[in-house]
Amino acid sequence: MSRTDFSAEEIAAVYRAIFERRDMRHFRPDPVEPALLRRLLAAAHHAPSVGFMQPWRFIRITDADLRLSIHGLVESERRRTAEALGERGDEFMKLKVEGISECGELLAAVLADGRDKQVFGRRTLPEMDLASVACAIQNLWLAARAEGLGMGWVSLFDPAELAQLLRIPAGGKPVALLCLGYVEEFYPRPMLEMQGWERRLALDETLFENRWGEFPVAN
Ligand SMILES: Cc1cc2nc3c(=O)[nH]c(=O)nc-3n(C[C@H](O)[C@H](O)[C@H](O)COP(=O)(O)O)c2cc1C
Q1: Hey, which residues does 59 pair with through a beta bridge?
Q2: Please, is 141 exposed, middle or buried when counting C-beta atoms within 10 Å of its C-beta (0-12, 13-18, 19+)?
Q3: CATH at 57
């Protein structure tokens, strides 16, 4: 007897979206239909959040000059990151780490102001607001993949400078730039893996039993 009300095809579709989602940095310039964008944002808005605080706000960037200024911020941070990386700096500069100029839609994901009022689930772990925004972004990412759209998460920027550019009130904080749009094709594997920057850990390297560092005894 089945213990789920998802069909086998529906289950497979969920896993397919998870495994075939990619962080995309190459886009076709085609616009994203407004109804589709709205569906994706609704998926984001149905994410879980600590104390149901829903701390996410999304700013859709439609002003071309503003997009250009945002690209400038990211480019400055990309250079600062390369300097901070030391001996891997040159290798880093060869990576494509954003598609801000090309993507059909650019969104900023922002932590709303006034979050200190929310104590439930955040008294000892205040960063759970950020975790909640990350859940919303992941929903958007997976829904986009299922709809045939790519998304790239860009975190290379100074949040204070971006907050100023986007007129975010004090206490609010931009945490991601999301490049969204149609793509020629999805990368078969993470781009950073394809370019030799990093590899995926084996699942078993990330699983402990009972205590940190203790691996399950094989049966
Ligand atoms: C919090 C977060 C921030 C990220 N920031 C960037 C970024 O600034 N630039 C970039 O190229 N990729 C960024 N990524 C994408 C990761 O590089 C990517 O998820 C990882 O390489 C695995 O690839 P995959 O998403 O295709 O599976 C970010 C991802 C996360 C979750």
Answers
A1: 108
A2: buried
A3: 3.40.109.10
The half-sphere exposure of 92 on its side-chain side, counting CA atoms within 13 A, is: 15
Cβ of 75 less than 6 Å from ligand 1: no
What ligand 1 atom has the least distance to the C-alpha of 25?
A: 11
One-letter amino acid identity for 84?
A
Ligand 1 contacts CB of residue 145 (under 6 A): no
**Count of CA atoms in the C-beta half-sphere (13 A) of 125:** 9
Measured in Å, residue 164 CA sits from the centre of ligand 1 at 24
Q: How far is the C-alpha of 84 from the C-alpha of 159, rounded, in Å?
A: 18
Count of structural domains, the chain: 1
Give me the domain span that covers residue 124. 22-184
Instruction: Convert the pLDDT of each residue in 148-203 to its tens digit.
Output: 999 999 999 999 999 999 999 999 999 999 999 999 999 999 999 999 999 999 99
Model's pTM, two decimal places?
Answer: 0.97
3 in a domain, yes or no? Answer: no
Q: Is the CB of 164 under 6 A from ligand 1?
A: no
Cα-based distances in Å from 145 to 50, 56, 60, 169, 197: 25, 21, 19, 32, 24
Question: What tens digit of pLDDT does each residue of 42-62 get?
Answer: 999 999 999 999 999 999 999
For residue 192, report the distance from its CA to the centre of ligand 1, in Å: 9
- Closest CA relative to residue 107, chosen from 79, 132, 133: 133
Q: Is residue 11 part of a domain?
A: no
User: Could you tell me if the CB of 70 is within 6 A of ligand 1?
Assistant: no
